[in-house]
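Quarterly update, task 2.4: adenosine-5'-diphosphate-bound model.
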Amino acid sequence: MRRIAILTSGGDAPGMNTAIRAAVKMAQYKGMEVYGIRRGYHGMLMDEIFLIDSRFLSGIIEKGGTALLTARCPEFKDPKYRAIAAENLKRRGIEGLIVIGGDGSYRGADLLSKEHGIKVVGLPGTIDNDIIGTDYTIGFDTCLNTILDAISKLRDTATSHERTILVEVMGRRAGDLAVHSCICGGGDGILIPEVENSIEMLAFQIKQRRNTGRLHDIVLVAEGVGNIFDVEKELKEKVTTEVRTVILGHIQRGGTPSGRDRMLATQMAVKAVELLEAGEGGVMVGVERGDVVTHPISYAWEGTKRNNILDLYRIADIFSR
Ligand code: ADP
Ligand code: F6P
């Protein structure tokens, strides 16, 4: 395979640029050409496709976001539009595609492959860490560090005012960011969508903390739990401390990628190029227990074994008391 393309799709994540750079550098080393597709599947459909050169890669290793831009493209669910998009690739002699995104993006890639014979490789790029088949996704570690920085700052003011602060973190339906940031940031309470949450129990914990002299409470709330202002309202009825709510929001999606994310992105991108060079497709790349692994791309939505989030939740829960 001499010509491949690469795109980023769905929510952006720090480290996507590092993955793009690594894929292009490795492909160029192997004598392959790499085309960039702007704005994910939207750009594939609208023919926003260009040959990536060294100038495009310059400096992007350390930039958050994605230099290829990203978009959501509902039309791609329609086979008629996928056919137009595939034709834009074939006209240029592009035979392989690297898709950096989440499982929705993988589904699009899988259909493109089955219907039009383009070889596809998926790389997990999302801050949410919600993709089956890899221990960590590209962007998760940077996002975790952003949250930890926020927790430190919030703890300062929470202590001065002896307040309880509910901190909503992202993750769509997954509690990974909340669990990891609770453990690493010394959180004092945690609510995630994967378990039954009890505000009664949280209120009890807060009262106990105050009885033992603690001056603040930082409670990590995963966005997937539901409306945080409902949580705030219910908690306020049960505790006497002042409660404030902070929604960290899209700050969590930006920033220079951590060393760990850059390494993960690089390892995965190199593997993707090696697979396409060998004519292999229909797979997703992950890193499990330190090893770079592949799974059929459908594993992302058909697989059942996700990471050890519930084990970690138990630790977060115990340590937050
Ligand atoms: P993520 O990749 O982060 O899960 P989305 O679910 O928003 O993000 O999917 C990103 C894009 O992937 C969608 O805008 C669409 O273009 C494409 N996509 C998602 N699901 C499908 C599907 N079932 N069939 C075809 N394309 C899809
Ligand atoms: O999937 C990444 C993510 O940041 C989720 O954590 C969040 O629920 C969602 O995207 C936000 O999407 P948008 O950028 O469309 O507001």
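Highlight for this quarter: The two ends are 56 Å apart (CA to CA).
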